[in-house]
Structures are given as structure tokens and as C-alpha cells.
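Working notes for the structural subgroup meeting. M.R. asked for a predicted model of this chain before we commit to crystallization trials. I am recording the input and output together here so anyone reviewing the notebook later can reproduce the run.

Input as submitted:
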Amino acid sequence: MMTVTHLDDRERVLKGYKRQLLGGKLSSMEFRIIRPDGSVRYFWAEARYAVLDKAGKPLRTIGITQDVTERKMVEQALIEKKQKLEENTQRLEETNAALKVLMQHRDQDKGELEAKVLSNVKHLIEPYLEELEASASDRQKNCVYILKSNLKEVISPFTNTLTNKYFDFTPTEIRIANLVKRGKTTKEMANLLNVSESAVSFHRKNIRKKLDLPQKKSNLRSHLMNLR
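Returned structure, recorded in C-alpha cell form:
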């Protein structure tokens, strides 16, 4: 048997067999053998009793040997399937984490874009329109009015619910207002804007104040969602 036992298992099987003879403790073991055609088979052997000499010392053991190759193949297939499942699960978790980061950056970038557009309109365009309107003829004033109306229409996709009160918000307050509308928590907004939670709370209070909302009786998100 030892001549056909797989080289990697030979030492372990030999030690186990000697341990049985010296200690008299019968046990079982699993090992591989190499067939004449080079194929590998798995065997399970169990010693049932020992053959003793006249002095009572064990000479050899007698037991049963069973080919368990089919069972080992099934076990190996299950192990490989489990490993593949774990790898796929890990890849999905990594993908979900990456998507979450991308979504956070998208929300942040969108908020920054909206804030920048509104800020530019307020500080770079509106003052000139106001100045032009103050010194314009009636016909020119109508043109300015049309320009203002069209300007609000142009930037409305960036803000969804653009109102005159939004023009009183600071860029940071605009970003926070948009994040509030998307249902972000104070902690999530702090992470997205890279500020402290107390800073977010401070700006939220300012937003409520500018919208004339009581501190506790009105829901800020509901109010922002209903702005037209």
C-alpha cells in the first residue's frame, strides 16, 4: 500500500500506522493513492483490531478500506463553489461601496454646481440688470423684465424649485437646502460638504430663519419640496 500511496500523504500514513502499533490505539485516516494509469483516488481506512504476537505486542492491524473519491469530489466542488460565492460577494460589496462614493460625489458636485450658478446669477448678472432697469425707458424695462424671466427659466433645471427666497441664501445654504430636499441627514451632509455637523445645523437654522419657519413646528424638507 505504501508504494502506491501519494507521496504527499506517505509520511503521514506511515506515522499513523506506527503510532497504532506502538500505542495499540486503533484509529482511521484518509489518504490518496496513485493508480497505475496515474489517476489519483481518495481512500478512507479504519483499523478494526490488531494482530498480536506471542508476547502480546501488535504485529499489524486489520481493518477496512473504502474508496471515497466520489465524496471528496463533491466536497471539493462545494468548497470551490463556496469560495467563488464569497469572491462574488466581496466584489459586489466593493462595487456597492464604489457606487456609494460616486453617488456622494455626484450629490456634492450637483450641489456645488447649483450653488455656483445661483451665486453667479445673483452677483454677476442681477446687479447689471437692476442698474439697467433703473435707467431704462419703459420699453427697455419690459426687455429687462423678459430677460429676468428668461434667466429664471434657464437656471430652473439646476435648482428644481427656484424661488426668490433662494436668492437670499448663501452658496453653502443653497447646497444644504438641496441636500435637505434629497433627504440627507445632518451627518451625511457634513460628510458630503466636509464640514462639522454643528456647522450644518447652524446653516439649517439660518435657512429656517430666512424662510420664516418656526424652529420645531414645520418640517424643513417638506417646505423646501413644496416651494414653487
